[in-house]
Amino acid sequence: MTNLAPPIARANVAPRLSSGSQHVTTLVGLAAVVFSMLYLISDLMELGQGGFSTSQLVVTYVAEAAIPLFVLGLYAVQLPRIGRLGLISAVIYAYAFVYFTSTVVYALVERTSDWQALERRLGLWLAVHSALMIVAGIGFGVATIRARVLPWWTGMTLIAGMLLMGHHRQFAGRGPDGLRGRP
Fold it and tell me: Which residues of 88-115 are buried (b: 16+ CB within 10 A; e: fewer)?
């Protein structure tokens, strides 16, 4: 039987995923949650210690190194509906976190004491990559909402987080994570 709904009505219905696609989507979503929680744990470690430590930076490294992979995975599970904005935003967001991961390596090698010391050393580059992350995060959130593959609140949560980071960075003089300034 053919679908008798008009094309416009059909276009507004989210696609059904095959069981294989649902499995991949679940794995990517699980990775996003697990590594985001690991990232939060590293922030809490930093806050509790009053600065960086080798163990805290290792946890941060593991969490940040996974972000580009699961962001690109979130893009892939929304294909083909996520469009060009989704592609560009996902790639820029992933790139920003490749950079942020490298700052963790720098902090480990140089035995940097805290975020302020790292920011003094890397200065403008941190600001540029934070701005890229915020703009790309908002774009990816918008593309996710438009794609209607994942629940709308996933895109909205990312947009809200990016707006809070931008607000916090602009008005509080700290970085986008809200604790020490780390993205």
Answer: ebbbbbbbbbebbbbbbeebeeeebebb
Residue with tokens 């992350």: 133
User: Can you state the angle between helices 152-172 and 124-147, rounded to 10 degrees?
Assistant: 160
H-assigned helices in the chain = 7-11, 19-49, 54-76, 83-110, 115-122, 124-147, 152-172
The residue ranges of every structural domain in the chain are 19-172
Whether the predicted pLDDT of 14 surpasses 70? no
When pLDDT is cut at 50, 70 and 90, the band that residue 123 belongs to is confident
Position 159 scores a pLDDT of 95
Cβ contact 148:14 at 8 Å: yes
Show the CA angle centred on residue 81, arms to residues 79 and 85, nearest 5°: 95
> What is the CB neighbour count within 10 angstroms for residue 70?
21
Q: How far apart are CA 142 and CA 164, in angstroms?
A: 16
CA atoms within 13 A on the CB side of 100: 30
Instruction: Please give the mean pLDDT across all residues of the chain.
Output: 84
